[in-house]
Amino acid sequence: MEYQDNTGKTHVLVIPYIAQGHVIPLLELAQCLISHGMKVTFVNTEVNHKLVMKTWLERDSFGPLMRMVAIPDGMEPWEDRNDFVRSCETINQVMPRKLEELIDTINETDDDKISCVIADMGMPWAIRVAEKLRIQRVLFWSAPAAALAATLSLQKLIDDGIIDNDGVPLHENTFQLSPTMPSMTSAEFGWTCMGSLATIKTLFKFALNAVETAKAAQWKICNSTTELESATFNMFPNLVPIGPLLASNRLAKQAGHFWKQDMTCLEWLDQQPACSVIYVAFGSFTIFNQTQFQELALGLELTNRPFLWVVRPGLTNESSDTYLDGYMDRIGTRGKIVSWAPQQEVLAHLSIACFLSHCGWNSTLEGVSHGVPFLCWPYFVDQLLNRTYICDIWMNGLGFEKDENRIIRREEIKNKVDMLVNNGEFKTRALDLKEKVMNSIREDGSSNKNFKHLIQWMKEKKQ
Ligand code: UDP
């Protein structure tokens, strides 16, 4: 995709981390930049670029001010990109040079030289590249701001005995960065839930390096709002909320999917009564064991309510036979199962009653922004913090209890669905929160003002 004949623009390079939950919000940010008359070069890895282009719909076209480009991540095509240690090491070795070459080439050939790099915190080296090339630098954080605040406070957490010098949790206790901030546990850090001690130590080194590199960024922007995380933004005024980044914020639709969206679910939703459907989706990473998967299937059946369930390729650790015999026949048209949904359009649909979610931050923001109450089924990292926000602070949802084998049973699923849907207070609070959050991106809203300052700064710095 080439941009044409649009000279005299501020030209920004945007680079997401290699995961789905990073590409989608940064593409939304890119659209916001374009709507302010800027030019964007959006850099994916070659593997992700192919995925995104394959699912790209005509309606997603961003017009001539946007160019999607790819650089290699240094791994072989068949290698596992979810192997964090391997992918972080290879990316660090290969991508900085490739990015520098890309910027040099663009700046030699394009009338509008790249004047600013917006780099995901998962790609901190891109900030270093920009610094070396004397380009403006903005760091983007795709999870709750409280999690960034904790990451930037690693030394304090070591001093307080929460983690040791290698990032290893010293106990399971919760901690708070300030009395008004949500409580967290060390399990919420990306490196602590990644298996062996050696892996934890290696990933912790990457985190320390990212924290050090973050100092070279002139802005640290977060996909969040003061309305959602006021305590964090009061305590850490150098973090700037500009979210929620949503497709519905513009005329464009959500883009950047790694899997093809099954649009038939929208027609199915049209057939369902208002506020009746349980939407069930676990994002792009989560993996179920077979027992838990079947228990969820049976729990949804037991609710006796319509449900739309995203069963992503690879959602279970079994290769086939994931449903029990006769399940599909029993469910009939009451349940719709798709491999990937147009999630933001689903959440905007009037038939949706609640969102049974793994509480990834994007899913959390998308549910909140559409006034949908949650049933929280978090796995790890910031999903646990997001559950705390939903259940204890915003109070627009409920969590599940596990049994002694750490399984969420079908009866628990049915009971919590009933409790949530039959108690109108959850919906009322969800709608109140929606109103506040959406106000933040309206003309005089807090996030919108911050975003406009950022744009102004980028445009001034360009001159
Ligand atoms: N998503 C989607 N269709 C689906 C499931 C998820 O479009 O069927 C999108 C969702 O809207 C969100 C992203 O994928 O923008 C998932 O990000 P999140 O932070 O919620 O979870 P992660 O995948 O990072 O665990």
Description:
With 463 residues, the protein is α/β, with parallel strands linked by helices. Helices cover 43% and strands 14% of the residues. It contains 17 helices and 15 strands. The protein has helices spanning 20-35, 46-54, 84-109, 125-132, 145-152, 154-159, 197-214, 226-235, 264-270, 290-303, 327-331, 343-347, 361-369, 382-394, 410-422, 424-440, 446-462, and strands at residues 11-15, 39-45, 66-71, 114-120, 136-141, 174-175, 184-185, 219-222, 239-241, 277-281, 307-310, 335-338, 352-357, 374-376, 397-399. It has a 7-stranded parallel beta sheet with strand order 3-2-1-4-5-8-9, with helices on both faces. A 6-stranded parallel beta sheet has the order 12-11-10-13-14-15, with helices on both faces. Strands 6-7 form a two-stranded antiparallel ribbon. The longest helix is centred in the first third of the chain and has 26 residues, at 84-109. The chain is globular and about 65 Å long. The protein starts with 10 loop residues before the first strand and ends with a helix. Mean pLDDT is 91; it is low at 1-5. Bound molecules: uridine-5'-diphosphate. Uridine-5'-diphosphate binds next to helix 1, helix 12 and helix 13.
